[in-house]
Amino acid sequence: MRSPSSTSTLRPPAPRVQSLHHDTLSALRDLIVHNELPPGSRLTETMLSERFSVSRTPLREALKVLSSEGLVEILPNRGARVVTLTPADIKNLFEVIGALESLAGRLACQNISDAEICDLKSIHCQMQATFLRSDLPEYFRLNQEIHTHIVAAARNPILATTHQNLNARLLRARYMANQVDHDRWAAAMGEHELIIEALERRDGIRTGELLLQHLRHKFEAISRHLETVPLAKETA
Q: What is the pTM of this model?
């Protein structure tokens, strides 16, 4: 007969612990993506524990996930810091992700269902509403949801996994493209509409071209911004 202590060790983590981990991860990721924790910022466990009112366990788990996503660098015995991408890093990542999304668009036209097209149109309408009220965080969330749906519709798990891993490193740059250039934000809305129209026609070549152009325009907006600001340095 098992003792009470041995039985308790076999129980799954309490929902509250899992929720704390998820909430901490989501909140910390948003602060990085929205540039409230800029590149190079030191992330000490004491500071973050106080900020999020959590113990170090969910915090450490969140930092591990963000490290795997390429947003955070774990520093041995020194906590962690927000990763700084160089202009060359950003250029290289946009080139690869642009190629992946272009391929995803072509494959999606072969595999996407009518129901998925309807879902994309619905998300696009919601995104348009957030644009009209200048709600950039919610707009960006819906924006990424559209891109994720298109990649998923390609029905290629290797492509989807590769895209997810690389895109996580570019989330802050993609967010910044709309934040620093309102004209770019407006143009992006029009580009999304054209992409969805091409998907609905199952025009793979056109969809791929539009997605590639969309990513190139985002990179150009970021490049213009980086020319006017110095690269971030590590902060204490």
A: 0.82
Paired tokens of 166? 């690389």
**Is there a contact between 124 and 194 (Cβ–Cβ < 8 Å)?**
no
Instruction: Name the nearest CA neighbour of 102 among 215, 218, 11, 231.
Output: 215
| 1 SS3 class | coil
The neighbour count for residue 2, using CB atoms within 10 Å, is 9
| 1.20.120.530, 3.40.50.720, 1.10.274.10, 2.60.40.4070: CATH of 87-226 | 1.20.120.530
Q: What is the dihedral of CA 201, 120, 195, 217, to 10 degrees?
A: -170
pLDDT tens-digit readout, 49-105: 888 888 888 888 999 999 999 999 998 877 899 999 999 999 999 999 999 999 999
